[in-house]
Structures are given as structure tokens and as C-alpha cells.
Amino acid sequence: MQVSLLHRCTKMVLLKKQVRRKGWHLRSYRHQAYRRLRMMSQIRDELLRKVRKAIEARQRDMEQVKRDQARHEVARTVATYTRWLHSWSKSLLSQRRLIVQQRQEERKLDRRLRLLRKQLGRHRRPQRLLERCLLKLRKGLERTSILHPTIEGQADTLGTGGRGG
């Protein structure tokens, strides 16, 4: 069967239009695919950038936490040493005061002993005077032994002469 030429021509024109339309659709699909691909890569790049920023921020925070912990440890150590130094200084100061007190007491007792030795040579009853002096010396040593424990027991070694005790 023979198809007329006009009919074939119109078919060809219609086929060309269809081909053009299909080509246009394919090109639009391709453009949409490229656009989607670009958008996906932009989204991926943006997400990667955000993840990197989050990781960097986390690392900075961790470093800051470590620095803060180290600073806190150093401050605690310094505070401990400061308390120890203050306590040690107070102890040394109290010991120095105690030593000064004991030296003053010793000088006072030495002066009293020299005075008593002078008086001993002048008095007619030196034994009685000596007993009184030793008693006063013992009482002074007892007072001093309260100030410093190493003097304890020395007061007991001194006798009171004729008296018991």
C-alpha cells in the first residue's frame, strides 16, 4: 500500500517535532541533573565545612579545658605551698620569740646569781642565804621549764639544802 507523499511529509515533520521535543526534554533533564549535582556538592561542601568547624571548636574547647585544669592544679599547688610557708613562718617566729624569752630569763637569773654570790660573801649566815637563793633559783627554773620542755627535770636536780623537797 502506498502512502501519499503529503502524508509522509507530515509524518516526517511530526517525527522531527517529536525528536526536537524529546531532545529538549532530555536537555532539560540533563540540566536539572547537573543542577541537582551542583546543589548536592554544595550541600556536601557546606556540611563538610560545618563538621570541620565543629571539630576545630571541640578541639579548642578541649585544649581550653586542659589549660583550665592545669591552671587549677597549679593554683592548688601554690595555695598548698603558701599555706605551708605561712605555717612554717609562724612556727619559726614563735620559736624565735621563745628563744628570746629564754635568753632574757637566763640573763636575769645570771644577774641574780652574781648578786647572790656577792651577798654570800658579806653575810654572817651564808648557809641560810644560800638555801633561799637555791629555792628561788629552783622556782625560776620551774617557771622556765614551763616555757621550754628540755629544761624539765633540771629543777629537780637542785636541792633545797637543809629543807626537804
Any idea what the shape is? rod-shaped
- How large, in whole angstroms, is the Cα Rg? 56 Å
Number of strands: 0
The major pleated sheet works out as: none
In short:
The protein has 165 residues and is an all-alpha fold. Helices cover 87% and strands 0% of the residues.
Plain-language structure description:
The chain is mainly alpha-helical and 165 residues long. The protein has a domain at 9-122. Helix content is 87%, strand content 0%. The protein is built from three helices and no strands. It has helices spanning 5-122, 126-147, 154-157. It is rod-shaped. 0% of the residues are buried. Residues 160-165 have low confidence and may be disordered.
List the helices and strands and how they pair.
Blueprint: H1 5-122, H2 126-147, H3 154-157
Helix pairs in contact: 1-2
What keyword list fits this structure?
GL11096, 165 residues, disordered C terminus, single chain, mainly alpha, rod-shaped
